[in-house]
Recover the amino acids of this structure.
């Protein structure tokens, strides 16, 4: 168990992870980067996508009985707080994710990170309300929690114990310290940073537990559509019979990040008609005070693409998914050949989708090692300690394989191999 | 003095103002609306503006040594947290506002409302830290304060006393109650809701007072460029020699709202190199956890327009300014003829710019009267009580003249006249 001071220092380190990433990218611009989980740019076609905006504006206008010119003007104006393309998102969720969610239970946000920032103070309004998050976890939830002075309590998703046992113990631990777990933040599919997937059993038992405990699950799913093999598991939102799961989606990975369009899809139980009481009403009100409404230009680009594609992005993401799969395979092969000599000393997981994998090393790999690795060997990786709440992940690193060429993967893994070799030799 | 319960109810009423506005607009779609301060749509040209995005992408790429295609891809990718077009904004601030602010002291935000939401918890980190805001005040600051559980203390900008005397008393009042005023929120130019302008003397003495008291001024300036007559006064940012003014700008009114592009410009004193300590560093970090970066597509539209216009929007807004001036004149003339019979019973101000004017009535005009006026006479107006912290403005209404035709202005004021007549007759 870590001391409080360590916990705070680790939180500060997590909060600094983005700055660290930017800094080493600036300091070593020629280094090969496995550090940032950016989508592959070769599948962007923003120039062509924005050419479809006029067609969307026409549809938008004609639905409101406006001329083409007035349709465009109304698109350029302030718009509905909850969004413009909710009907298209609702249909896409049905087709691509098997999710039934009415258009009016969706709030379009400036990236799904905004949805997190809006929901946390709504779901954790009182002192002592805490968020449960996996250790390691996506850095964004740490930042939002810190901004709203809401405590994050970590639980382990890995290791020997079941995730439900680990969660139950954490909830109990909170209660005995006068705290109330209100929110569980999860990335069930191809997790960032670990690439892991929650099993069907885990999904259903977590839902049962949270429904019983009155905890709202925030299911963040940026990577689910990038599944390399096997069948996708149902989302927790679609499994939920209690109304305790809010689904967070984003078009940053499936279309492109520059749009900053994401959304929160709420279960009917959180959408009572009285907007003063329901989570939907509070979310909408908070949104109106933070970003008023999500850029209607950006929503129009997403809307046009969804309309052109019959409200499914499955075909749209298929080439990118093939690319990510190929990159994963290349990285796994490179790791195998580079670390063959190490035996069990260096190991890694084999994610079935997403952007990331994890390498276990026989020594601590923290900020200093990441700097040395970049400076001396020209490869950037993210220490898992940046995502972790304790020291159990100090020997692990995250490699992003999403936005690199095969040559860069082979070269970069070889460079990492040389860094590891010098570290092992020095011991 | 109002009781605490009244203060809370009034805060809730302010928070509900947006919902109220949407609701009566939905309920009475054929009513003439003086309620919402939207920019005039006839000056939008979003279809043509987005055609300039490729040229901006090319410039963006060539500065980074990229091909046209890769320039576009990099635009579509995640980008700098603090923004992409800071250099262009910095030049525009110099040309259009006489503001010297280095590009690296600017943070581009998803509308300037996001800047408010990011800055309030940074500037008011402790319990007892309070925000000073004028009564009446723009509703957005109320929402942000409520979201971050930060108290708003109102002061009067109108009435007999000087604004500095009123501010000094409020600061003193806070201190004697164990509270510390940290932020002063102000719209010095063509205020929403009142249309009022702070004099040069008021600007300088408020700056002196705040510098002495360690209070940061948030100068929100959405309407400054729409000046109908006379010379514009210098912004408080440009008058500030102490580093106590943060300038908030937006392109929602000068270009169009659908972009959601605004910014915060900080004085050097708030931009120390150590990003953990400076307001700039904290702002950037908070931004990275809320919206990651402002939509680069939306920034590209603004950037292209600024480039094409030599980084000045003065010519661009000139036709719109003429339109707003004509609308104000039409509204003043309509008020004069409609209420000629009332003598001093009904009066109004004559704003020198912006979107709004205020009418003083000889009876209370609250939510119920606004509903009745919409239902029975087909005209929507905003009670000033929605913007006020006490009951001193219960007899006043805000009329927005920005997005209506002259015919609608004449007809709408006549309708308002009939409502006033029935109210007077009933007394």
């Amino acid at each position: 168990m870590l001391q409080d001071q360590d916990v705070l220092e680790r939180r500060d380190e997590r909060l600094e992870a983005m700055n660290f990433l930017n800094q080493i990218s600036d300091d070593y611009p020629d280094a090969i980067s496995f550090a940032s989980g950016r989508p592959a740019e070769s599948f962007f076609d923003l120039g062509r996508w924005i050419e479809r905006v006029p067609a969307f504006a026409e549809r938008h206008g004609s639905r409101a009985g406006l001329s083409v010119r007035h349709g465009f003007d109304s698109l350029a104006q302030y718009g509905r707080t909850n969004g413009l393309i909710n009907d298209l998102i609702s249909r896409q969720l049905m087709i691509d994710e098997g999710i039934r969610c009415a258009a009016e239970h969706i709030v379009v946000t400036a990236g799904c990170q905004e949805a997190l920032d809006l929901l946390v103070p709504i779901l954790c309004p009182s002192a002592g309300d805490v968020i449960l998050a996996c250790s390691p976890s996506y850095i964004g939830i740490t930042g939002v929690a810190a901004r709203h002075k809401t405590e994050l309590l970590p639980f382990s998703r890995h290791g020997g114990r079941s995730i439900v046992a680990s969660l139950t113990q954490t909830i109990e631990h909170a209660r005995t310290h006068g705290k109330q777990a209100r929110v569980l933040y999860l990335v069930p599919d191809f997790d960032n940073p670990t690439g892991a997937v929650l099993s069907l059993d885990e999904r259903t038992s977590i839902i049962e537990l949270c429904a019983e405990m009155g905890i709202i699950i925030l299911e963040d799913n940026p990577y689910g559509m990038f599944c390399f093999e096997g069948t996708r598991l149902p989302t927790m939102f679609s499994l939920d019979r209690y109304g305790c799961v809010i689904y967070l989606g984003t078009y940053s990975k499936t279309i492109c990040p520059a749009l900053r369009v994401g959304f929160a899809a709420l279960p009917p139980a959180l959408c009572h008609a009285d907007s003063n009481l329901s989570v939907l009403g509070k979310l909408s009100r908070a949104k109106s005070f933070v970003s008023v409404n999500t850029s209607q230009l950006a929503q129009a680009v997403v809307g046009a693409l969804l309309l052109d594609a019959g409200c499914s992005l499955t075909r749209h993401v298929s080439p990118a998914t093939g690319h990510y799969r190929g990159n994963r395979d290349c990285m796994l092969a490179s790791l195998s050949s580079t670390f063959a000599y190490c035996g069990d000393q260096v190991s890694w997981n084999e994610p079935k989708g997403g952007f990331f994998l994890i390498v276990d090393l026989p020594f601590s790999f923290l900020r200093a090692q990441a700097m040395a690795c970049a400076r001396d060997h020209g490869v950037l990786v993210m220490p898992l300690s940046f995502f972790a709440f304790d020291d159990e992940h100090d020997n692990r690193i995250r490699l992003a394989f999403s936005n690199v060429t095969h040559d860069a993967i082979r070269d970069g893994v070889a460079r990492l191999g040389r860094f590891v070799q010098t570290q092992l030799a020095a011991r």
Observations:
- The two ends of chain B are 27 Å apart (CA to CA).
- Chain B has two domains: 4-42+317-426, 49-314.
